[in-house]
Automatic annotation (TrEMBL):
UniProt xrefs under Gene3D superfamilies: Immunoglobulins
Protein name (database record): HYR-like domain-containing protein
Superkingdom as given in the UniProt entry: Bacteria
Protein species of origin: Gelidibacter maritimus
Pfam family, one: HYR_4C
Domain annotation HYR-like: ranges: 2-65
InterPro entries on file: HYR-4C, Ig-like_fold
Length: 89
């Protein structure tokens, strides 16, 4: 499990599997949950592999997505000093 900033969500990695008997394993992947809205939420990724003997292994990755950075104001005018009869509107 990992916690990341909203602009640093990791890509889905390539996951492989090994088995003592079956050498032709196929790993399946699904994103079982994604509640990320406006850069905050949780993503749950799941990988599953089943061998020819019917043995199954499933593993999950939970990614908690946060936004801990303050927003930045852009275009705010500079402070000015004016005479009382020249107050801008």
């Amino acid at each position: 499990d990992v916690t990341v900033e909203c602009d640093a969500i990791p890509t889905v990695p390539t996951v492989t599997a090994t088995d003592n008997c079956d050498m032709t394993l196929t790993v399946s992947y699904s994103e079982t949950s994604n509640t990320v809205v406006d850069g905050v939420g949780v993503i749950v990724r799941e990988w599953t592999v089943t061998d020819n003997g019917g043995n199954t292994t499933t593993d999950t990755q939970t990614i908690t997505v946060i936004d801990s950075k303050d927003p930045i104001l852009v275009g705010v005018p500079a402070d000015v000093t004016v005479e009382c009869d020249a107050i801008p509107t």
